[in-house]
Fold these 3 entries.
Entry 1:
Amino acid sequence: MLDRDYEIAVLKGDGIGPEVIDEALKVLRALVSPKFSFREYPCGAKCFLETGNPLPSETIAGCRKADAVLLGAMGLPDVRWPDGTEMRPQIDLRIQLDLFAGVRPIYLYNRAHTPLKNVSVGDIDFVILRENVEGLFASMNGGIQLRGEVAVDSMVITRTGTERVVRFAFELAKKRNRPESRVTCVDKANVFKSMAFFRSIYDEVAKDFPQVQTDYAYVDALSMYLLQRPQFYDVLVTENMYGDIISDLAAGLIGGLGMAPSADIGLDAAVFQPSHGTAPDIANKGLANPIAMILSTAMMLRWLASQYDDQEMITAAEKVDKAVKNVMSDPKVSTKDLDGQLSTVELGDVVVGAL
Ligand code: ATP
């Protein structure tokens, strides 16, 4: 067991970011053991307005130094670069820390949360592995716009970048150890050279995991299959932009973005944040669902457990997961996005009570 506290860098960000982070910190503080020290760093669109920089170097340094990073959400629609794009410091952070694996679990806690018929709790239980630092997002800040006539953003797929995320996906499927372990390669290999290359690397890596089934889906067809047979999926691995889109679609199957946690993981650093953005439409109204952020925090506990071989962290993660499961078993105990009446703070209090 570690003989010191874990230092957690806290990046609250913009919109509903600070509201959901506060609930996650409340949950962590309520876990009598283990112990954490939290250090807050400035970031996001508000930080840009105040300092001219949405991701100051002291924030990046603080994230590198910390044992893990908790992030709310960053960016505001009215705060943009001169080319019209929004500030996306969370994506810059992924690139700076080389957090290549975007891990996005999708789990249905209550039948009342899904728009699908004939699905029970636990039927929807899969993980999207989004390649996080290349793909179409490699063009971020680097695309071109010519003479007001043509604009180009390029899809960048590398062997190294694809190999490591696909390997991560197969390792994860092995760890999940479902009766039928499966990794689905989500691409558009029938049209794009870059995607055919992605698939060929998937095939190479798959040979090292004979106990895990291979499966393929074009991203457009997958959008339909996820609605028709979500039970089929275990782990899905895909390019950055496709991963961005299908994560939101998948979140819609389990009650929306307020229920979808996420972790951005690299070789020696990790950032834990909900799949949602800053949701400015509901910010500062007490309407944000904090569950995605709280579940992201449980992912952080599990990651710390594996990094530091710390059983106490696994116990803590299990406590949080169990508390959320208990709370979510009553559909009335929820925020407005799930047709409930509770405020962000009230739902956080209920989770703390369930711990
Ligand atoms: P980004 O591109 O930064 O990921 P986005 O455009 O996907 O952001 P979000 O900010 O994630 O947009 O939110 C989309 C909508 O989902 C919001 O307008 C809000 O209504 C809803 N939403 C997102 N997160 C939550 C939450 N935690 N609780 C309740 N509703 C949420």
Entry 2:
Amino acid sequence: MSDPQRLVVISNRVAVPKARGAAGAQGGLAGALNAALQARAGIWFGWSGEACEEHSGDIATQTTDGVTTATMDLSKRDVDEYYNGYANSTLWPLFHYRLDLAEYERETGKGYERVNERFAEAAAPLIEPDDIVWVHDYHLIPLGERLRARGLRNRIGFFLHIPWPPTRLFVSLPFHERLVRTMLHYDLLGFQTEEWLSSFLHYCEHELGAQVDEATGSVTLEGRTTLARAYPIGIDWEHFSRLGEEGDARQAQQRLISSTRRRTAMIGVDRLDYSKGLPERLDGISRFFDRYPERVRDLVFVQIAPPSREDVESYQNIRALLEQKAGQINGARSEVDLVPVRYVNRGYSHAELFGFFRASKIGLVTPLRDGMNLVAKEYIAAQDPEDPGVLILSRFAGAAAQMQDAVLVNPHSPDDLAHAIRIALDMPLEERKARYEKLVVSVREDNVQDWTANFLRDLAAG
Ligand code: ADQ
């Protein structure tokens, strides 16, 4: 049954559907949002990803299967200040607890506010009085308040895909109060985990002096009440778990199996980002080889890490560091027929990733901090129930709250990582199955369709 209220999704980038059935083909978040938009004949608005000389405000629209995508270009200066600057050089590092990498520049802060105003200016005319509006992520925190300033009285919700930092870190952000006050113009705020939610509520109570009810998540300030709740995101189980039937998945699985021969493949799949703990992961692997030199022949580590945000300096540095560390391990440990670390600097389709995950008896997901982490869930979804691999998961990923049956590690500790790898390599089939059977329940049940439905149900309820 289709919902009478139309849905408008606003996010930094938009997944533009290419053809009929694209929602299924995209998988993941884009697929789930597209399905929700289709059920409500909705609109998805965002930046086109293009940078032009001058901001024009022109909007390009395209309608496929009842879903309209609307995108606008941004000027080079806007992209630099709003996207590369404030969003990715200030908020992203700070929200991932990396004060050492966070840059506080007045100009980029102004650019962020200016672009949020541009989003409001462009989106407001697309929104009808009865629409419900769902804004996504740290790029657009003040957007709800900007829409309200234009007179919108719709139900407006916001979901934060990344962590919310503890108050003591968060207050290092200049104008932190101004930013959070804008959030209280939303009707519903969604966080990935109870932990991030509780940090947010703590800030509202102790820094803003808001009235906070932890049991219901209501935050009241100056006569306005906003609800804040945890909605852990999941994967598109139906879509992802069926990828194994595709030729690309089988081929990828065979490729990895035949190239590793009798050795155990251990895999990491991440965007190349300092929050993902990649150098620390290599330090753990190096410690494993130092401690158990007789096992160098047992293991091949495959790290797939396509570059991201290459215009930001800290991302160039992480890439150089990783290449150096992988080179060092291979320099010290390789033989003519054996290279212990394969570092692949490119992306693959989800079907190919499925095949790689299935061929790997250990999945290494060790972010230093992560809002959720969907790779951990995809790794589990790709396993053979009769012979499942072992997931090694950072206790600092949001996913750890739901995945307590993984081998949980402190990603900062090379000893802890080395120990976990040994445990995983030697884990008997019975224990692997017992852990997998518990993990797969939440990966299957807490899927992205439920996440979308739960958030929209609460947003519409108000
Ligand atoms: P990300 O930081 O991008 O997302 P994550 O949730 O792990 O992190 O994964 C995103 C997707 O990208 C996954 O579907 C994964 O398969 C895909 N991907 C990663 N590496 C890839 C590769 N080499 N080739 C192809 N695809 C690859 C942010 C937050 C997370 C949160 C998500 C969703 O940082 O914490 O889980 O949003 O809310």
Entry 3:
Amino acid sequence: MSTATHEETLGFQTEVKQLLNLMINSLYSNREIFLRELISNAADACDKLRYAALDNDALYEGDSDLRIEIEHDASANTVTLRDNGIGMNREDVIANLGTIARSGTAEFMQQLTGEQQKDAKLIGQFGVGFYSGFIVADEVTVRTRKAGTSAQEGVEWRSRGEGEFSVADIERDKHGTEIILHLKDDAKEFADEYRLQGLVRKYSDHIEVPVRMPKIETAKDDDGNEIEGSEVTTWETINEATALWVRPKSEVSDDEYKAFYKHVAHDFSDPLTWSHNKVEGKLEYTSLLYVPGRAPFDMFERDGARGVKLYVQRVFIMDDAEQFLPLYLRFIKGVLDTRDLSLNVSREILQQDPKVEKIKGALTKRALDMLKKLSKDDEQYKTFWSTFGSVLKEGPGEDPANREKIGELLRFASTHTDTAAQEQSLAGYIERMKEGQQKIYYVVADSFNAAKNSPHLEIFRKKGIEVLLLSDRIDEWLMTHLTEFDGKTFADVAKGELDLGDVENEEEKKAQEETAKAKEELVKRVKEALGDGVQEVKITHRLTDSPACVVLPEHEMGYQMRRIMEAAGQPLPEVKPILELNPEHALVDRLEASDDDAFGQLAHILLDQAIIAEGGHLDDPAAYVKRLNSVLTA
Ligand code: ADP
Ligand code: MG
């Protein structure tokens, strides 16, 4: 009966094989999600056909009543899903159902461990999609034909999920896709009407396309007995089948919002929060934005998927419309449905349309407000921050207009708790500021410990002034853009003149000046001994425990950023530090008392140590060791 021709057997891409193996093991306790994934794909296929048919009605082939049908056969142990969506041609089938064409997939797969719990989480983050059929099926058959092609151009794909699949040409009079799952022995429970209906309602109620199941009706005679041979099949729509975002907020339950999130975001786990808004007036749009509960595996890939699903007057236009949100909010998922764009809008047009910029501005505000609300819940916000905080830190640089709002959302580690957890808000910092303190102080280093133990903090600790401890790669860059918050400026404690504002009184300042004066001769000698190695030598009161530290001029690029740029192969002009000496320290006393030879050794040692304490690299480490040893053995 089969008219299949041009049959070939192909191997799955390595990553697909790995995914299949792991998925089957790790998602066993969650296997019902296969139905959600396949319905989600069928709904996407209907959306795509509706879009393509906008300028070519013929693609409907006379059947514009888009729908998904689910049937089962308990005796054959099969569940069949059918859609009259866009369908696939042979090339599509091989690419879509034989490979995973997402960048970073191979790297992602390497992270999988073989441990069920961990991998289930990771796979969820990746999105299981079509292949989830193999969690319940030992054989999957796909019959499909792309809308607009001839009946001869149908394709049949078959696989047992064991490394290879076959494709063959078939005749298929309808466009769209049919997926037949041959259930595994232990998954027979799914060949059941009630079970399937329950799952459709649980996972796919929000899908706009109707999901139908057959209902066999039998006519009855006057006595109420079924009339033999009178069975007719009618189709019953199981899901709500209206676009969720179109419904009023008050009528949508949390569970429905969550289920819808999984469909739009291709995610497996619940979102942290969402914001659903209808806007009428100059701009007319409905948006439903979500904050995911975890990062997609490709968040830091340049070409990772991002943006919202775009609809124009309920018609699906495109996935991942990235023009409506700034990059630093790329983790936000959701839907935008607008009347302000035309149905034949393309990515190119989106880039030029001034309305897009306006909607982007509005959505950005919505998203920031949503995060602000989320920040009221400490636990949830901790999850958010640890997942997306480093992305949000790109905000002040990318979007100066919203700097203040973003500033409210930032969290830092600080000397307030001295723990690595980034939990302090700037508002909290300002509340704790000392009397007379005008600036928000921070230190940047390569690691939390280096920041926490930086010699620059000594005076701040002594005076009880809080300092933000920054050690993320992006932090120094962030601080070059965050210049101000709530009317307060920021100061890097390792740069420029030490300025404690009015925390120090006149007497202290005077005493410092006097000490500096008394040590003028020492400073001169050190500068002579170090020559070009330093820009300047000074007496400082920053330090309580360390003998010396290096300070960078106010507007010089910091050490963290320098190291990042150098690692990226960027040539940078040499920077000469300012060496500051602690007049209270025994080593400085000893330096002062040394004769010229020992003086030179010790001065170099102090400078090199200060550079090391900063996390810096010495140009000539061997010379440092030699000098140190000669002093130790003297
Ligand atoms: P995703 O949905 O995240 O793209 P899937 O693994 O679920 O990933 O599906 C892979 C691809 O296979 C889809 O992007 C789509 O191109 C194609 N596909 C799957 N199911 C269908 C379907 N019912 N009709 C048309 N294309 C489909
Ligand atoms: Mg999918």
